[in-house]
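ARCHIVE CARD
CATEGORY: sequence design from structure
SOURCE FIELD: tokenized fold
FIELD CONTENT:
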């Protein structure tokens, strides 16, 4: 009887005993999942690099437009004319009509691919009686290098007022 009990125990132990380590199938499945995740993340790298480059171009365009708005505010309401802006060096010398270009003056083409900049100035109804106001719209346009037909632009608007 003892022998039968020992035989039964060894069969039970053989069935329930767990080997340490992984099977070949587990290793193949884990390798496949890891390779698939690596390919997905590797595919995102060029997309994120392109997005970062385009975001840099937008940031540069916003900086150029904001700088131009600040320059025009500094000039003041009374000097927002063609001759005054040319004399102050804020627009290109070949400017004749609205919108006034400032591409050469601010080297926009050196900062952005095929970059151009324009200023449009219009008289607006002042929000407060006894004041005069002009609306200034600065637009910076460029062609992203990665796109042959697409054109991107940033426009900023400000009102410059003359108070009496």
């Amino acid at each position: 009887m003892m022998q039968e009990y020992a035989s039964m125990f060894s069969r039970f132990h053989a069935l329930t005993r767990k080997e340490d380590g992984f099977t070949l199938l587990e290793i193949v499945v884990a390798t496949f999942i890891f390779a698939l995740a690596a390919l997905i993340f590797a595919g995102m790298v060029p997309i994120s690099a392109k997005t970062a480059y385009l975001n840099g171009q937008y940031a540069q365009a916003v900086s150029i437009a904001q700088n131009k708005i600040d320059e025009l505010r500094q000039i003041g309401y009374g000097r927002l004319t063609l001759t005054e802006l040319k004399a102050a060096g804020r627009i290109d010398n070949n400017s004749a009509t609205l919108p006034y270009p400032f591409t050469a003056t601010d080297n926009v083409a050196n900062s952005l691919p095929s970059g151009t900049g324009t200023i449009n100035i219009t008289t607006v109804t002042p929000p407060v009686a006894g004041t005069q106001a002009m609306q200034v719209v600065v637009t910076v346009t460029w062609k992203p290098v990665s796109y042959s037909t697409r054109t991107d632009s940033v426009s900023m608007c400000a009102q410059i007022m003359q108070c009496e």
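CARD ANNOTATION: The chain has a mean pLDDT of 86. The radius of gyration is 35 Å.
SHELF: design records, drawer C
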